[in-house]
Write a structure and sequence with these properties.
The structure holds three protein chains of three kinds.
Chain A lengths: L1 H21 L14 H35 L17 H29 L9 E8 L2 E6 L4 E4 L1 E5 L4 E7 L4 E5 L3 E6 L5 E5 L5 E7 L12 E6 L1 H12 L10 H13 L34 H9 L1 H4 L14 H12 L8 H7 L1
Parallel strand pairs in A: 1-5, 4-10
Antiparallel strand pairs in A: 1-2, 2-3, 5-8, 6-7, 6-9, 9-10
Helix pairs in contact in A: 2-3, 5-8, 6-8
Chain B lengths: L2 H5 L13 H31 L9 H4 L2 H26 L3 H32 L8 H31 L9 H30 L1
Chain C lengths: L3 H6 L1 H10 L3 H29 L10 H35 L8 H20 L17 H4 L4 H29 L12 H32 L14 H33 L7 H14 L15 H13 L1 H15 L8 H24 L1 H7 L3 H31 L5 H27 L16 H31 L37 H7 L14 E3 L5 H18 L7 H20 L5 E3 L1 H6 L4
Antiparallel strand pairs in C: 1-2
The chains are: A alpha+beta, B mainly alpha, C mainly alpha.
Chain lengths: 351, 206, 618
Amino acid sequence: MKGWMGKVRALFWLSILSIVLSGCGKENLSAFLPKGYGAQVSLDIIFISLAVMVFVFIVVMIIYTFVLVKFRQKKGQEDFVPKQTEGNKALEVVWTVIPILLLIIIAVPTIAATYDLADESDKADSLNISVTGNQYWWHFNYGEEEIQTSQDMYIPVGEKVYLNMMSSDVLHSFWVPSISGKMDTNPENENTMYIEALEEGVYWGKCAELCGPSHSLMDFKIVAVSPEEYQQWVEDMQNVDLEATPETASAQEGQAIFENSCLGCHAIGSSPTAVGPNLTNFGDRTKLAGVEDLTHENVVNWILNPEKMKPGNKMTGNYTVPSEEEAEKIADYLLQLKPSDVTPETASSNN
Amino acid sequence: MSHEDILNPKVMPEEPEKATLEGKNKFLGFWFFLGGETVLFASLFGTYLALKNSNNGGPTSEELFGLELVFIMTMLLLTSSLTSVYAMYHMKNNEFKKMQIWLGITVLLGLTFLGLEIYEFYEYIVHDGFTFRSSAFGSAFYTLVGFHGGHVLFGLLWIITLMARNAKRGLNLYNAPKFYIASLYWHFIDVVWVFIFTVVYLMGVI
Amino acid sequence: MSTTIAQNKGFGATLWDYLTTVDHKKIAILYLIGGGFFFLLGGLEAMAIRIQLIKPENDFVSAGFYNELLTMHGTTMIFLAAMPLIFALLNAVVPLQIGARDVAFPFLNSLGFWLFLFGGILLNCSWFLGGAPDAGWTAYAPLSTTQPGHGVDFYVLGLQISGAGTLMGGINFLVTIVNMRAPGMTYMRMPLFTWTAFVTSALILFAFPALTVGLFLMMFDRLFGSGFFDANMGGNSVIWEHLFWIFGHPEVYILILPAFGVFSDVFSTFSKKRLFGYTAMVFATVLIGFLGFMVWAHHMFTVGLGPAANSIFAVATMAIAVPTGIKIFNWLFTLWGGNIKINSAMLWSLAFIPSFTIGGMTGVMLAAAAADYQFHDTYFVVAHFHYVIVGGVVFGIFAGLHYWWPKMFGKILDETLGKITFWTFFIGFHLTFFIQHFLGLMGMPRRYWVYLTDQGLNTGNLISTIGAFFMAIGAIVFLYNVIITSIKGEKVGGDPWDGRTLEWSIPSPPPHYNFKQLPLVRGLDPLWIEKTEGRKGMTPAEPVGDIHMPNPTILPFVMSFGLFIAGFGFIYQVDDASWLSAVFIGMGICLGAMFVRSVKDDHGHHIHKEDLDKGDGL
């Protein structure tokens, strides 16, 4: 008896220890540290249901422990035959009715929250962004503002932003745990959900529906900035000078190569081309391809062999691989594409 | 009493299909099987209803379907259900010959139905260019109606096999349940067709 | 495992015996071997997954191979391990518990097994033929319909074949339980394991056809150019999700209900008490089965069905907690006041209560739609369903195997090894999965090949992988236990546990015909009633007479083999039309065997009274 109770206890403490060690997860990623309205609402429901359920668990475990301690076979009593009870009406009613009451405690706020998170009453007056999930990147189209961008979504803090989501290929799911719960992007119908960031910051987003080999590398960000900075960003993005000549010679050559070879798939500016990610503000991206550091070396490596960074991506095999020299120049060109002073750093530093 | 004698009693019991344990098991098991088949067709109907307007620029159900041919097919199948009831009636009276005759009529009606269905599909494919691959609606239509057609074909083969196998030796307690569940299957096919007629054709035209 | 008879007969004869057997007890052994093999295979895939996730940005396996591993792990464990192992227990025990000499459809029973086996083999052939399926065990369209290669085709055909087998098994047990109960064995006297077998079979009957249709549609889309799930042709990928979960959710109850039955019998036997609240337990089982069909869309809260549908399915799902809670408390009160003897079977059953309660708790949490927006498709869900499926079903299978092993093989599994298995597996299980609840909410979606270094997910994943190794050790010790017991274990009598139900009233392993005379059942726990009244065994309900038994047949094997060949034909005819010949040959073999079955009379054989009196009917 002692032996196995001891083992259970050890197991319990080991689990507690492991939780403490890992904390609640990383800020701006973990659903335990909500920074958005949806995440806050979901976490409230999580805690309400958890509290009720832990209560039930404790009741079960008290009876369980008592039964095992009290009624375990004693030495010399192997042949003892206990009373054969058939049941007990009163008890059975109790453990039918009480769980129903407990479930009502969970169900009522759940339904309220479910309707709250599906509210679309002020959609027309709010910022609307069309989100497209692609293997393995995200595209964001600010229809009214005529801005197209990929991978980093800029939103004003403290405002409801409506996301109208579809997929261009297979199912994906749009999930920024610290901002809101997730919503699938389907190829045949548009799903709408709203998000509202409560603090400025750069929030990690992930794809949460298996979509192929690079499913785990389909990260993106929400960049929440102050409404003023957001306005500034919108203006900067609208006024991108497509003809601007880069400063360095290398970047200029890179621009020429890019315009010849890459524009068919990758747009710069508000062109609706979205075969591949829009690269208008590539130099300001938080990450390369969602997960890699945005360094010159990584960009060159990506251009030369995207398959190594993202297995199964749609660029591999669909373009003429440039020489290393050309790739260096393209990278030089892309990395200086910084149309706005409002960048992910702005969002992080204000926080 | 040997097993043969048990299966060939002098006086046939009132319900020969359920006179043995094997017969009872077959009878009940087949009803359960039809329960599963109901879910199968319900899933197909659900899929069809979800996709019936997804014609993807191709012909719509209003343009395609006419009721005349389908009405004749419905009548054929309904009548065949009735004739299989007569067959079972004669089975219970231990009149093997009459049972065979009525089953034969059932098979003929079923074959005509199947022929008309093939003709109907042929018209759609050749004249209207409406195929399994033209749209999600096309896929759903041919799958639902085709699954039913497949059931009809299987039912016909089954009844013909039973008739041929037992033509010489007549009815006994071993094959009575077999005839009986084959007729149950035939009724089921008929009921499914009534739903197809209503959901696919009537609702498709209106 | 082989009996003395088998050794006397020689290998070839034994093999032929098992290939042609229609005896439910031998089919149980076949299911056990088949399911056990696939369980080890699925476990191997699980270990590869956990090793890949032992550290961030690991490259133990490639991204594409990882998706194959996770798909095959899920598919194998559900369809090819858990289901057949449950069927092993059903076959071994249910006819004995209701006092039947056989099942209603011995031929179908055998056909069901061979279909499962050939379906499973077909599915696993994909490993050697260009890659396994890689769209997840749920195979969501359009990923599954657009994946290049033949992996998903193997998934579709393999599951179609093995699913047909399962459906037959379901019908067989329904009819067996309705029609073949011994005299006096009313419905409300059936042991709870038989009740759960009954409800599970009904669920199989009504759930599997939805999967059948889904698989057909997917097969047509992939192999014959239809457009059910193709948005460009007007199709709709959400239809697959509905069909899959209309099957998939009841499937969870198909697995867990028989486990509930095992625990009910084990608790009752080893606390020497009748089951507390038997009527309520039966009622709860039926209610769980019924509600199981009303809740499928809780797997689809994030699909965009709208708040009304989400709320309805949320509340319906929560409602299932009530009958489940009833069961938990009835088990606790079965133990209450009992004389509790703790052995391996009991350890698994006792461990089930806290483990499954945690799984049930997280189940209710997941049912809360607004909270599920965070949980969905993360490691929280992975943790939840492993708590339910491992903590419920696998614990139940282990408990059932320890409990009924002496009935199946005449020997008790080694207790010391049993306890070692239990503790390593139990500790490993909680170590692996408890932390995953937190990983999910910390931002780790499921089916992730890698996680990034600096996201606070490293420790949790490391702990989880360590736990997985403990589970693997436990499983290996169990395998060793099975081997050592079959070599060295001592023979035991028919009733080693002081049992309460009919299966313990006959020798271990039971004779071919189970009951020489059908027993007369006089109440719940019939053997216990006779014992308390001072009798040693059951009172017979009939005089000794000839026993009618079915003949062995190779046809089920042949039919399944035909479908196996046709499966390859269907898969490869897209590449080369000459493969259509394989379809015709395979279907020809299958239909030919059906034809033979149909026209050839098979009246079975009789075991004569004189032989029975001599003590063997073989």
